[in-house]
């Protein structure tokens, strides 16, 4: 049986049963986020993704909070290499790795919307951003592996850099990385441990996996592969689709226009592909739905159906090479519990 890994999502810009409202029903505060993390841990999720960018809370601070309010769930901390030096990021990661007793995972996010990146003062074009990311990953991995690092490159320079504290995970902190452009896939092949994609049709996911596998072979490396999806699961198919449409039933026009502006200003190949899928159809494959993409940047695909249908749809991704699922539902605490009860045991049965 394929060893599958399941992660939930920390809603660090607010939460609720509706998407696209002017204000979230539940604020992005410590109480909301720790409730979600604890619910995901209790439900049996291995990890929890903490997003980065606009308009989310700082992912490192949230990761630390989650570590100190849970016992075993692994924070998957997303961060952008353009806003921090590799040696500083290495120290942040090593500190949280120690505090969490080796639970930390990191998701390096190059960033795909020039509109959004400009809000934080980054005006670097697409190709150069990824070149910077490649050099960043080269340096940060060396700080985890070597006693002292001296580096002089195009974007970063350091002399006799040493790491304190040492990593708890002596083999290094697992790096999750995504991107659909050629340069993104090349960087993933050379540096990443898990290559992440958004919820495209199964056939296209399989094609990208084969592409990255071939690239990784050049470096003598083997990667694992993951996907970011939303889940709407109910006892009946009719209830599931009613719940799905309920999520987008209160969209505020101004909020939707703001999201569309960010997406239209994106030079991310993955975002462009997500937008194209949503423009063509509401549904694809067996149980996939693009409705969430109407009011959400990034991952816009949901799997909608009964527990058996959701299992079937996820299995289709497993069959093309996916072993890591980063999931979310609205609201997040309740839906983590539901998935943990209705679907997760179908993948990881509890043995007595």
UniProtKB/TrEMBL annotation:
All copies of domain Luciferase-like, residue ranges: 5-324
GO MF terms held by the record: alkanesulfonate monooxygenase activity
Transmembrane segments: none
Gene3D superfamilies assigned to the protein according to its UniProt record, in alphabetical order: Luciferase-like domain
Top-rank taxon, per record: Bacteria
UniProt xrefs under InterPro entries: Luciferase-like_dom, Luciferase-like_sf, SsuD_RutA_monooxygenase
Family matches, as SUPFAM superfamilies: Bacterial luciferase-like (SSF51679)
GO biological process: alkanesulfonate catabolic process
Keyword Transferase: no
Keywords associated with the record: Flavoprotein, FMN, Monooxygenase, Oxidoreductase
PANTHER family: ALKANESULFONATE MONOOXYGENASE (PTHR42847), ALKANESULFONATE MONOOXYGENASE-RELATED (PTHR42847:SF4)
Protein name: Luciferase
Lineage: Bacteria, Bacillati, Bacillota, Bacilli, Bacillales
């Amino acid at each position: 049986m394929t060893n599958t890994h399941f992660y939930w999502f920390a809603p660090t810009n607010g939460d609720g049963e509706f998407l696209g409202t002017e204000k979230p029903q539940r604020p992005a505060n410590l109480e909301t986020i720790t409730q979600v993390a604890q619910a995901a841990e209790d439900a049996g999720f291995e990890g929890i993704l903490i997003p980065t960018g606009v308009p989310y809370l700082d992912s490192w601070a949230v990761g630390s909070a989650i570590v100190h309010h849970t016992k075993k769930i692994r924070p998957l901390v997303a961060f952008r290499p353009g806003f921090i030096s590799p040696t500083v990021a290495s120290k942040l990661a090593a500190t949280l790795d120690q505090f969490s007793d080796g639970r930390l995972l990191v998701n390096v996010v190059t960033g795909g919307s020039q509109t959004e990146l400009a809000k934080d003062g980054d005006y670097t074009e697409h190709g150069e951003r990824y070149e910077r990311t490649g050099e960043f990953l080269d340096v940060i991995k060396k700080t985890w592996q070597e006693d002292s690092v001296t580096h002089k490159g195009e974007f970063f320079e350091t002399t006799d850099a040493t790491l304190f504290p040492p990593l708890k995970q002596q083999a290094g902190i697992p790096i999750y990385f995504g991107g659909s452009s050629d340069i993104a896939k090349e960087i993933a092949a050379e540096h990443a441990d898990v290559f992440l994609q958004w919820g495209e049709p199964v056939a296209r996911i399989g094609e990208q996996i084969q592409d990255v596998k071939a690239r990784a072979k050049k470096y003598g490396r083997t990667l694992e592969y993951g996907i970011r999806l939303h889940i709407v699961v109910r006892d009946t198919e009719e209830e599931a689709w009613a719940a799905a449409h309920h999520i987008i039933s209160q969209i505020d026009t101004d909020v939707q226009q703001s999201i569309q502006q960010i997406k239209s200003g994106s030079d991310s190949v993955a975002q462009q592909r997500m937008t194209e899928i949503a423009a063509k159809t509401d549904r694809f494959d067996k149980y996939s739905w693009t409705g969430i993409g109407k009011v959400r940047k990034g991952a816009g695909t949901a799997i909608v159906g009964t527990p058996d249908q959701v299992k079937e749809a996820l299995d289709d991704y497993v069959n093309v090479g996916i072993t890591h699922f980063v999931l979310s539902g609205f609201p997040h605490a309740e839906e983590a519990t539901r998935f943990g009860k209705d679907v997760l045991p179908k993948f990881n049965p509890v043995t007595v």
